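JOB MANIFEST
job_type = single_chain_structure
chain_count = 1
residues = 1091
[input]
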Amino acid sequence: MMTNQRFLKSMTKYLLTYFCAILLIGCQQRDELLFKNISPTQSKVTFQNDVIETEDLSILDYLYFYNGGGVAIGDINKDGLPDIFFSGNQVKNKLYLNKGNLEFQDISDKAGVEGDSSWNTGAIMGDINGDGLLDIYVCAVVGINGFKGSNELYINNGDETFTESASEFGLDFDTYSSTAALLDFDLDGDLDIYLLNHAVHTQESFGRADLRYKRDRQTGDKLLRNDNGKFTDVSELAGIYGGPNGYGLGVAVADFNQDGFPDIYVGNDFHEDDYYYLNNGDGTFSESLRDFFGHTSRFSMGNDIADINHDGYPDLISLDMLSEDEKVLKASDGDESFQIQKLRTEQYGYHYQYSRNMLYINQKQNNFMETALMSGVGATDWSWSALFADYNQDGEQDLFISNGIPKRPNNLDYIKFVSSEQIQNKISATKLVDQKALTLMPSGSVPNYIYKGGSDLVFENKSATWIEQISTISTATAMGDLDNDGDLDLVINNINGAVSILENTTNASSGYLKLDFQLPSDNHFGIGTKVYAYSEGGMQYKELYTSRGFQASSQPILHFGFGDAKSVDSLKIVWPDLSAQILYNVQVNQNLTITPDNNQPISKKELKGNQIFHKVKNSGINFTHQEDNYVDFNRQKLIPYQISDRGPAVAVGDLNNDGEEDIFFGGSKFTPAEIFIQNDSIYERTNYPHISNDSISEDVVAVISDFNNDKLNDLIIGSGGGDFYNQMNPLKDRYFIQTDSIFSKEVVPNYFGNTSVVRPFDYDDDGDLDVFIGSYAATNDFGGDETSYLLENENGTFTIVETPVFDNIGMLSDAVWDDFDNDGIKDLIVIGEWMSPKFFKYSNGTLSEVNLLNTSLKGLWQRIQPFDIDSDGDVDYLLGNWGTNSKFKASSKYPLKMYYHDFDANGTTETIVCIEKDENYYPLLGLDDLAQQLVVLRKSFPKYEDFAGKTIEQMFDKKLLKKAKILEVHELRSGYLKNEAGEFSFVPFQNEMQVAPIRAFLEFDFDADGKSEVLAAGNYFGIAPIQGRLDSFSGALIKSETETVLGPKLGIDFSDKAVKNLNIIHLKNKPYLLVTINNDSAEVYEIKIKP
């Protein structure tokens, strides 16, 4: 009894301590919240967008049943307080007048804005008739499922009442409208409208991409030009698509290319591509998505625009519905298979699309750099609205994302249920299965996300500390300073729940400026106005467009944060008519109303700077590499990436003994190599039969040099690829000796491998070139240890040197002979994938491994380049790695892991790649992908919900996992090994260099300053659609530890090109850059330096 009392006493004390600690933590979290949730009791905002399924109407009948209503913020009565309008789906619209202190009054009935349409969607505020008052335009879905009505325009009467006037203005469309955006696309001083419509699944909405050219009245978008108060549909004339496959959910307006005219980005759901309309300045647009975007979101939803890297060009985020929660992720449909993607892009004409958010960094007239995964904003679940703003007023753009859905229609168990033939027959005959189908869809009620912006393109997830973690179904979101305290508050139109009003508590603790504009034209609020704010050596850029996020419009102001600064050096205001004015020494923490004054015309001339590279089209080098149709994933379905796409081989050297540089380009499997001989002023393709006829192998790497000391250059070609295996003859390397301008094939030692490296060097100092041969992954045995070889040269004949250190060394990708210990003798460094760089010291005729790294550095290393990056007199080593812009995650504490084993005991090995989440390891692939190879998993996990959320340890027996070899990666960033007195430490490059694998380096004095620089290039596409497409690295010139210049400033843009090799060639004694690209045409650039 005494023991029990003591136990209870101690437990009571423990529980009190525990709950007090929890309470304290909770209080601390509430104290840190940036946003405070204002209750309906306090705000008096009682609007609730309840969406009720009926027997005749649900998501099974209308696929956008859960998209929600709209929200718009603006001062409708000019009392200085922004008011709020909500549109509802099955409920009436509501207008709330701001009475101050975050209290609102419902004036909907008096105002006459409740609406007559059956199903309203997006809502915007704007001065439609140019009288200086904010009007309200409400979109509706009409003509499907019995929905009646039309889009409605409420003209502000100036007395807190409105008159519905859509028909009078030509805006009473009875279409499938999502939302609308205001812009002055023709710069005539009045506001035009882009009307975003959406399709529904019909026989007409599926098919080839050219469906977009077939105009559909109900689903096609419309560009509406304001002609003296009447809106004219000029869509077809202006080049705006309007097909039955346009599933428009997001629209964003900005002057993306800074030519003075507003451009338009449209996010389309499902299979249709997004649209990127560049304004031609003559009333027409050019749809240019493929010219500037390597890939897009697959299920594009809301989007938003901001200059997040302070370069004066608008960047863009596009939302999708990828979840980071393993239970949701693995139970949801996501990316298509490799084969389906190939069919859709190559046969049906669509662009590359992937199921995740995309963050696009504007690179001026070049391709956008997509960074969402690297930036940490790629997965925010079922996401609707994105709003960039400086919520904490520190000078960086933060990001709020609303998300959630009542039921998840992409749930795989639901899809499996409704896809069965038996159920399909029942669905066709009766609606009896509808309720069960709806029940199978799990809830998607989740908390919203908010991120703190940084100066390095990386966002920090502050959801747990900036906003309350309440599970909601949040769709349309707008922002404005509701309480006039200087910071931006948020208003969210939730489904089946009260509206969220989030009060920002930053106030004036950090400096801000809040700008609104008054123009004498019909564009009274200055839509399209640009502001450059200069403070303490930095610059911020914003454009005023109110239709942002998703089905919403925000308060027509521009808001800037300045941290601790007390004043702003200058504000440059660029008005929509392309005139500008400047304000100097502006004090922070104030609201400014700016009107045009002493304007000056601006120059549209763009300063391109001193670009080094200039593309040449008449060099005669018209080589195009073409991959064969082999797909590695068909043979080994679980490998993380392909191994068959590592060509083409390239070698530069004199092949016809005239003292000029010629070029060898290797071919893919069954494709002859091509040789270009340099003549007086141009290269010409020349046939060498013995080489071109030897075309069965995949040419991965090649070297031109004199291997038999006859003063004639010879050729070694490293063979590889993914199709051949074991000891098949096409896996043998090839060696051609030149005699009297004829190349004859010589015997090489009898080794078989997937050669990735051929590095000649006279290691034994006997006067002829020996060769190191590095081997990559073995076909049908990815992850297995590969052996590399050292070939000793005796009068042009090669033999294998017994070198035990190269046995089972790993998956090599590159090597370099260099004197890393500065003893006057060259040593060997090798790098590869799933391994650390290895240093082999040459001494007394042998190579022995030495450890010179101060940490474990296993990576997916691609290239190595000696370069004294810190100019301290010793050699450092640049390392190209995979980058951090993929779903791979790696660190010293939580490495990327790959389990290698014959899991199903069928005689062949499989690999399972796993990443860490919350200190547990989960397979990167889902059940469908894994079960293609490991059929036994279907028995273990008959339902997707059984599999979802399972760790690798829960999927397989512990004894089986213990038998597996585990390969690891600790570092994914590219960077350099800094030489510190003979020991090396790793230093990563800046984040702009981490967006894709770096696969090529080239050292040369490109800028003619007497010092060498290193040009870097890369990108890689041989990955499954679950990873996306690593296509965003434009190239960069590495000058020093602190100076790296990205490609667009140099005159190059390697984005969307899988660069394999960089070489310097000389034509008429002038240097040119040769860029060789996998599955694409080679490019040549003249190297010019302007004086």
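[summary]
Confidence is low (pLDDT under 50) at residues 1-31.
The longest strand covers residues 579-587.
exit_status = 0
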